[in-house]
Amino acid sequence: MSDQAATPTPTPGRLRRAWDSDFLYTFRRAPVAVVSALIVVVLMLAAVFAPLIAPYNPFDPATLNLMNGFTPPGEPNAFTGESFWLGTDDQGRDVFSTILYGMRISLFVGFSAVLLAMVLGVLLGLLAGYLGGWTETIIMRIADVQLTFPAILVAMLIFGIAKGITPPEYRDQMAIWVLILAIGLSDWVQFARVVRGATLVEKNKEYIQAARLVGRSPFAIMLRHILPNVLNPVLVIATISLALAIIAEATLSFLGVGAPPTKPSLGTLIRIGQEFMFSGEWWILFFPAATLLALALSINLLGDWLRDALNPRLR
């Protein structure tokens, strides 16, 4: 036997195996998912590295010049001669810089609110599905009652209550955290209902019965055996909920009950821009609104693809 025939076939590396996996193969074959992912990644990186990318710090009063106010995109200002890519707002702030810094607030609120809703919903769903009885009845009836109200109204109610009990001197500092709490507590229901349904299916399977026979505690069974098997729908809901949370934050900020003026988000920028929509300064509203639309739509399309990719019936 020759040396060449005796040489074993090299094992593909970990990155190569991941690249050839069914998940990434499906991703590469979906142009809409690829474009959406690229848009999301670019916008998120731009928000994270805003201090390095933004030409100006729009929230530093020392760098503002009121003479630059209402400068059209790409045109030199009539008084200072300065030009800005996306123009300036009424205070002379660079719109491009405000969008980058505003996305940081919107994405931070969106991710934090979804994380809070996911942790709370998954925990309550596991308890309701596995324990059953009065625990399930109480949790599901609370979820049913909350579903009778629009999520944005629930968020506004929670925001108002939380802000009301916060001392006045800390309200601006705590506004972002109150906003996260309000959106998170208004979105946990969908996680709980999906996890409860999946838990009802999983708890009657043989591997759960075996775990009970060997003396595993209910808490250990829920976290170490049931939870890994119900994560697929949770990830899909979390992706779609991220877009909804960003839109909810923008809606609350647009209504004036969200991010404070000292830390404006995309919603706050849109609220400021709509005041000048009919006076000719269209760019103050258009560019923040277009950024919000691109971000939310891309995340939604990515969530739709993820839902199909993780559905075994479609394989």
UniProtKB/TrEMBL annotation:
Keywords: Cell membrane, Membrane, Transmembrane, Transmembrane helix, Transport. CDD domains: TM_PBP2. The chain crosses the membrane at residues 32-54, 105-130, 142-162, 174-195, 230-255, 282-306. It is found in: Cell membrane. The keyword Cell membrane applies. Residues 103-303 form the ABC transmembrane type-1 domain. One of its GO terms (cellular component) is plasma membrane. GO terms for biological process: transmembrane transport. It is a multi-pass membrane protein. Its main location: membrane. Belongs to the binding-protein-dependent transport system permease family. This is ABC transporter permease. It comes from Roseovarius faecimaris.
